[in-house]
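Known limitations

Structure tokens in this collection are predictions and should be treated as such. Users comparing against experimental data should check residue numbering before alignment. To illustrate the layout, the record for No apical meristem-associated C-terminal domain-containing protein is reproduced below. The input appears on top and the generated tokens appear beneath it.
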Amino acid sequence: MKLVNKFSGCYANVERRMKSGKTRKDMLTEAKELYKVTFELSFNLDHCWGILKDTPKWQATQQENKAQNKKCKQSGAALPSSDIPSSTPATSAIEVEDEESEASRSVLGNSRSKGQKAAKRKQTEEISLDKLVSMQKDLIEISCDRLSLMKAGAQSTLDDAIMSKDLTLLDAESRAYYQRKKRVIIARELQEEKEREEKEKKEKEKKEVTKKERKAKEEKERQAKEEQNQKETKNNAEEDEDVDEDNDQEVEQDEHKEEVVECEE
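Generated tokens:
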């Protein structure tokens, strides 16, 4: 995407300097030459450029970049000057040390900033390359599908022409040729029909297997949930029995205490 963006800048530059009589093809050739001279690299992403250049999102991005560049060029302003006060040798030494320290920090900061920018730029280029590869795969897949449809359409048209051919006015050799062609077409269509039926059968069986697997999974989950509920019910019952036993023990203890009191009296 970044390479296409650079080429877009070269193309825009050539377009601004376009002279009468030049065609779009001439401009494209000149833009490629400018790109090669500027970046020391040949531009070979014509298919991506042809797709992106007419998309609204890409055009909006290019207009935004142009506006930002124009704004940056017009926004340069000089800083106001100020009088420099005189200083003593002691303060001058301190200022020198501060300046050296600040310069060191500035150098380290610039180095770190450059490293971070380089890493970020590399990461961005890798992401852009991945997107470009993905886009190329999608384009290839779309082209293959389109080619298959065109081929199927052309074959169907040719078959229809042969099957509707009137053989009564042909000589024996031509008639035999077209009869053989018709037999081939019929055999191919029968084979295609057979393959289509087998494919539909496999898809149906696959759906049935998936349906059975889903039902088995649901049944397994239901059984697990039922077992969990039974386990919780059993635990609750055991807890209730323990509580009843504790209550019985407390009652017995109370009765025993009452008997002891009566005996003492």
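For this record: The chain has six helices and no strands. The chain has a mean pLDDT of 75. Please report discrepancies through the issue tracker.
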